Amino acid sequence: MNTKNADQVSDATRAAAEGGAPSSQSLGQQLRSAREARGVSLREVSDQTRISMRYLEAIEADDFKRLPGGIFNRSFTKAYARQIGFSETAAMEAFARATNEQGDRPDELLPYRPRVYGNNNNDARPKWLTALLTLLILAILSLGVYAALHWYQRRNADPAQEQGAPATDSTTARQEPNQSAQPAPATDTLSVRVRAVNQSVWLQTQADDARTEEIILNPGDAKEFAPRERLRLKYAKNLADSLEVTINGRAVKVPTESRNTTAEMLITKDYEQPVQ
Description:
Elements: H1 3-17, H2 27-38, H3 42-49, H4 53-60, H5 71-83, H6 88-101, H7 127-157, H8 159-163, E1 192-196, E2 201-207, E3 213-217, E4 222-225, E5 230-236, E6 243-247, E7 250-252, E8 262-268
Antiparallel strand pairs: 1-4, 1-6, 2-3, 2-5, 5-8, 6-7
């Protein structure tokens, strides 16, 4: 730097320390004059301060609205002044005057605020939308709880489900070849009474060609049937001993012969039971 440039820098710094340059020069013009007097390029200032070139150009053009805002405007201006040897105090005073003249609020009243929505953010979603979402979530949770309770009740009410699904292949209760049988007295009517003892028993029943029904008999409960031709009973094989079956007032043995978890009993007017 030659003597003339050094004198210019010294004069600019002294003028800034005494209250700034003549009123004809703005802050950006003062900083640019001080930088050029030192013979420093704007790129060199950017490399040293890590401030973007477009922000430095905005400062020299007194276009502070192009800066990020808040404390960054003040920090960038102060760092720029320090780098070129300009009075930081004078730069901050000129910066405050410039922002006031441009109609901006003082820098101290404009802190940087990250754009994060919070409970106190006025730009958050409307209250009615929040309430609607809350009701929707509660409705979904209620449906989930209801479905879980319904499934749990059905699971406990169906002991056959706990023991496995009823097999499609079942054995009709009939007389074994090596067992003698007593023929049941012929009758024009068929009355069947099924009763549960000791524990609850799941039954699948079908009278004649009617639809299949599923029932659960608790201990002591009984069910009366009056089919025209036949009655089909299906039950868990391991619960056969908990069933009492009476045909036309005569107790019969409940068969347990089956290759599956369930057994089947077909009762007709000429039903023959195994010898007890």
